[in-house]
Amino acid sequence: MDTTAAQPYLEQLMNQREQLLTQMAEQRGGKVGRAEQASAHFDNSQDDSAQISTEREIEFALNEHELAELQSIEDALKRIHEGVYGLCLECGVSIAPQRLHAAPQALRCLACQSTFEKHHPT
Q1: C or N: which end of the chain has fewer Cβ atoms within 10 Å?
Q2: Alpha-carbon distance 74 to 67, whole Å?
Q3: Radius of gyration of the chain (CA)
Q4: How many CB atoms lie within 10 A of CB 64?
Q5: Separation between Cα atoms, residue 116 and residue 119, nearest integer Å
Q6: pTM for this structure?
Q7: Torsion sign over Cα 9, 13, 16, 18
Q8: What is the mean pLDDT of residues 107-112?
Q9: Whole-number mean pLDDT of the chain?
Q10: What is the spatial distance between Cα 45 and Cα 109, in angstroms, rounded to a whole number?
């Protein structure tokens, strides 16, 4: 897909990235990492150690999810700039526009994604 055809997806991805970065900053209370924020939060807690441990695990899981989502957006932006955006990673055919609108960071067409998920359950 050429850059002109990818323009709507580029804008959508840029908006998603900005929203995610804003959300991450708001949840952390600034530009500090979630781990640092969690550490500061839990160091002053009067909760028992099991509760603190569980809450820390949740914070770390959220951090991993956010970083993975941000990376998938960055990877999609890179594919746009390389001129390969919208092509299935597996079979090379064009990914349906409806799929790209729903998930602009999609790597695979629907058929290949279904096959991938069957062989790589989460």
Answers
A1: C
A2: 10
A3: 18
A4: 11
A5: 5
A6: 0.75
A7: negative
A8: 96
A9: 86
A10: 47
DSSP 3: T
Residue with the two structure tokens 């550490």: 39
Q: What is the largest CA-CA distance in the chain?
A: 56
Does residue 95 register a pLDDT over 90?
A: yes
Residue 59 and residue 50: Cα distance in Å, rounded? 14
The structure tokens listed for 27 are 């949840």
Q: CA–CA separation, 45 vs 52, rounded Å?
A: 8
List the alpha helices (DSSP H) in the chain.
7-28, 34-43, 49-82, 97-102, 110-119
Alpha carbons within 13 A on the beta-carbon side of 28? 20
Question: What whole-number distance in Å separates Cα of residue 23 and Cα of residue 4?
Answer: 29
- Taking the alpha carbons at both ends of the chain, their separation in whole angstroms is 30
Q: What percent of the chain shows pLDDT beyond 90?
A: 59
Whole-number pLDDT of residue 36 = 61
- Tokens at 59, concatenated: 């914070």
Decide if 6 contacts 85 (C-beta within 8 A): yes
